[in-house]
Every structure is written in structure tokens, then in C-alpha cells.
Amino acid sequence: MNSKRAVKTGCFFLFFILPAFLWGADTRTIPIDVYIIIDGSSAMERGKDEAVSWLCGAVIDGMLQQGDRLWIWTAGAKPELIYAETLGADKERAKNLIRSVKFEGDTADYRGALREAQSRIAGERVSYTLLISGSEAKDPPSREAESAGLLRYSRVESFAGWRVLTIGLDLNARVRRAGSHYMNKQ
């Protein structure tokens, strides 16, 4: 398998198989790490109710289970970690913190929050990173050379007033290891 095919296979897994696995009807037995970054700027004001409802319902209640690790940041003028715990049976604290996020100011430090999330990724568990931003928000940094790698593997889903970026922060290293492992077996 050449390196381009390994990258395509890795992207296919992250964006099509993993979401079906996480949101599928079958019960998951492997704990995961989830990193949520919420745009704390006023750009989220228009879509905040729907975005908060989606995060609390589809992600916190629908995807996460006991034993999963969850980190939540707000990305305002600087990133602020507001939650970092291994989930137990009660998820209300995480949902209440999401509901209490204040959306104010003109800036969102996506890059800083993504770097903080990336620094916490441990290779032994599957990680899933979500960046929630307002549709009026300045796009997350993708053109600057220093941050291009943060969004190399990402997918955008747009909703009325907000969008979610699913970002494979740890995918690049996994694809390289899988490609190297495959090539060494040849």
C-alpha cells in the first residue's frame, strides 16, 4: 500500500467508519477520548441554542458513555479549559458547563485550543475532536504554515448559524505508523 492509499484509508476510517461506530445502535465497549472546542465569540450567538442542544443531546448523551474521557474548551480571546474528566454515570455537569458558555467578544483562538487538545492526545485510545464555531466566525486557521497540520484531516458540517469541524488531530501519526508497518511487512 503506498502512502497516499494509507492516508485515504485513514481518512475513510476517521470520517465514515468512526462516526458510524460511535453513533451506531450497537453498544461500544472501548473507551474513547473526546475533545470539544466551542467558539466563545459573539459569532456563535445566532446558532448557540441549536449547537448547545446538539452537543448535549447527540454528543454528551448520545455518543459518550461511562469511562470515556472528555475535555471541553471555550475558544475566546484565549482558550479556556472548562471541563476535563473521565465520565461516570452522571453527565449533567458537562452539559451544564456547555449550557453556561458565554458567547462574547470578536475573537476565537481556535489554534490555541487545538494545540491544547493535541497536547493531551494519548496514543493508546481513539480520540475524537470537535470544533464548534459560528457560521459568521472567521474560519479556523488553515493557511498559516504553523497551523496547517492541525486541520489537515478535517470535515465540516454546516448548520443554520453554526458549524462543526471534526478534526483528526492524531490521524497523521497513525497513518504514518500504519503505512510504515505495512511497508515493513512487504
Short key terms for the protein model shown above:
disordered N terminus, 6 strands, 186 residues, 37% helix, Rossmann fold, alpha/beta
Written description of the protein model:
By secondary structure, the chain is α/β, with parallel strands linked by helices. It has a single domain (33-185), classed as 3-Layer(aba) Sandwich (Rossmann fold), CATH 3.40.50. 37% of the residues lie in helices and 24% in strands. It has a six-stranded mixed sheet with strand order 3-2-1-4-6-5. Helix 1 packs across helix 5 (171-185) and helix 2 (48-61) runs antiparallel to helix 3.
Structure described in brief:
The protein has 186 residues and is an alpha/beta fold. The chain is built from 5 helices and 6 strands, in the order αβαββααβββα. Helices cover 37% and strands 24% of the residues.
Query: Low-confidence segments, ≥5 residues, pLDDT <50?
Result: 1-14, 142-146
Please list the strands of the largest sheet in the order they lie side by side: 3-2-1-4-6-5
> Strand count, sense and closure of the main sheet?
6 strands, mixed
The computed structural class is alpha/beta
